[in-house]
Amino acid sequence: LLIPLLDEAVRRDLAVEAALRDGDVARAAALLAGRSKRHVARDRAAEASREGDFGGELRARDDESVYTAIRADVTQDEGSYDRYLDTDEWYERQRRRTNGAYDPDDDPLLKRPWQT
Fold first, then answer.
1. Which distant-in-sequence residues (6+ apart) come within 8 Å of 91 by Cβ?
2. Residue 68: Cβ-neighbour burial (10 angstroms; 0-12, 13-18, 19+)
3. Which DSSP helix (H) or strand (E) runs through 33?
4. Is 9 exposed, middle or buried (0-12, 13-18, 19+ CB in 10 A)?
5. Each residue's pLDDT tens digit, 22-36
6. How far is the C-alpha of 113 from the C-alpha of 116, rounded, in Å?
7. pLDDT (tens digit, 9 = 90+) per residue, 7-27?
8. What is the largest CA-CA distance in the chain?
9. Predicted pLDDT of residue 38
10. Is residue 82 pLDDT above 80, yes or no?
11. Which of 48, 58, 86 is nearest to 70 (CA)?
């Protein structure tokens, strides 16, 4: 009853778990392949956190934040509504830079010596 109101990433994770529980590996693989950029960024952040890569986690969380901000409704699957209701990614990133928001690409503590 409440599943349609959940965040699209959480809802997809629940669907993957249900498919695996039912032994439907093909459906689970299809669900994983259809993750949104926001969902992928969230998963990258969780993986980086588990591995102790705090710079990678910070960059992934920043990406997730951008992808969340540009979505008209995070409870809806990407493509299930008119994409023109969302903000463009380039616009949101530029707006954040212009307003002085934190940008992991500018953080000297996250840059490795060979990236300078």
1. 70
2. middle
3. helix 25-33
4. buried
5. 999 999 999 999 999
6. 6
7. 999 999 999 999 999 999 999
8. 52
9. 94
10. yes
11. 86
